[in-house]
Amino acid sequence: MTKLKADYILTMDKNYTILKNGEIIFDEKIVEIGKNLKECEREIYLGENSVVMPALINSHIHLEFSSNKTHLEYGDFINWLHSVIENREELFISCKGECFKKAIEEMKKSGVCAFGEISSTGNDLRYLKHSPLKVVYFNEIIGTTPAAVDMLYQDFLARVEESLKLQNDKFKVGISIHSPYSVHPILMEKAINIAKTKNLPLQAHFMESKAERRWLDKGEGEFKLFFEKHFKNAKPLIKPIEFIEKFKDTKTTFVHCVYANDKELQKIKEINASIIHCPVSNRLLNVGLLDLERVKNYTIDYLVATDGLSSNYSLNLFKEIRAALLMHVNLHPKYLAIDLLKSVTTNAAKALDLNNGSLEEGKDADIISFKLPGKVKNLDLLPLQIILHTNEVQKLFINGKET
Ligand SMILES: [Zn+2]
């Protein structure tokens, strides 16, 4: 048993309890949290202005692209997509052991205990099976050519089977449907059915760009040119609202949703799905900013994630939520800060089906600690100060073990 004592403990429980001079006792799970608790053989006071809170969860990344630094074209979604297709193989080949290790190390330093990895090839599996962080491994399906459906499905199935063999308390399996414009409906159906039978969480990119909106609504615009370049006679294969409906009775998170309309948000709410917001990625691809107020008005939970290094300069999750705090200029920073911390703890744990994200008895002891540069007199401002002043954590515990 370990006992940590900190000047501030942010529990992220239902009542959003903050303890001043608080204590937390844990082994693999959290045993007790409060003040003046029983003695333990191992007790650590974390020092002046120390903070203890749940470790963070980066719910959506593409580690396969971690070797990208300056290869890809930013500033326009379609140009970026062309550059991804052009550089894909080269980027994949140049990301091997050291590259994965570095990417995971960066997340770890920023207090991430678990991440949602979108894998389109399965090549990352051998590096991730020994990941120090918890992994939710989303096998991605992508492809629209009818003639290739069988081959793509067999490949996907083999990847799912391979990943299922690795399941343990730190490795979970999920399924990703790349997007409504890039997956044949037959493949969609089959992949979602696997998720239903095996009770696996799902993720899907949805309404990331204006081009996607125009293509799916009218079969026009930049995507038309894009598809004509790669395939003959391309037509949108599914209506956006039908796409969302396919995920009924599953645990799904839709990624981006910048151009989702009211009907679609209503549907997302109806099927109890959540939304992942990647503000830096959206900014770099210049697709606009998700209206968080609107998402909240539909009482949809949102999560913030970094996305891959294919559309970000960093996998540091504190930097990402700080960017969100500064970008959403119409929202009050004090309240937005609380929502942003929820988006990378409780909301993310719920969406990825993890038993962490808050400091409560019986939850996994996934805990971080760090120090603020000074005292915080008004505890209402603690979340904001945390987001402003934290880049790296001092301690990270995963299932109670310091990592
Ligand atoms: Zn993504």
Textual characterization of the structure:
The protein is an alpha/beta fold and 403 residues long. It folds into two domains: 2-54 and 357-402, Urease, subunit C, domain 1 (Roll); 56-352, TIM Barrel, CATH 3.20.20. Helices cover 36% and strands 22% of the residues. It contains 15 helices and 16 strands. Strands 1, 2, 3, 4, 5, 14, 15 and 16 form an eight-stranded mixed β-sheet that branches. It has an eight-stranded parallel β-sheet with strand order 6-7-8-9-10-11-12-13, sandwiched between helices. The model has no long low-confidence stretch (mean pLDDT 96). The site of zinc ion has 6 residues, from loops.
User: What's the helical proportion of residues?
Assistant: 25-40%
Compute the average pLDDT: 96
- Total strands: the figure is 16
CATH topology group of the largest domain: TIM Barrel
Q: Report the C-alpha radius of gyration, rounded.
A: 21 Å
Ligand catalogue: zinc ion
Low-confidence stretches: none
Reported CATH architecture of the largest domain: Alpha-Beta Barrel
- Please work out how many helical segments DSSP would assign: 15
Tally of distinct domains: 2
Short description:
The chain has 15 helices and 16 strands.
Draw up the topology in text.
Blueprint: E1 2-10, E2 18-26, E3 30-34, E4 42-45, E5 50-54, E6 56-61, H1 77-94, H2 97-109, E7 112-119, H3 125-128, E8 134-141, H4 149-164, E9 171-177, H5 185-198, E10 202-206, H6 210-218, H7 222-230, H8 240-245, E11 252-256, H9 262-270, E12 274-277, H10 279-284, H11 292-297, E13 302-304, H12 317-327, H13 333-343, H14 346-352, E14 367-371, H15 382-389, E15 395-398, E16 401-402
Parallel strand pairs: 1-4, 1-5, 6-7, 7-8, 8-9, 9-10, 10-11, 11-12, 12-13
Antiparallel strand pairs: 1-2, 2-3, 5-14, 14-15, 15-16
The protein binds zinc ion.
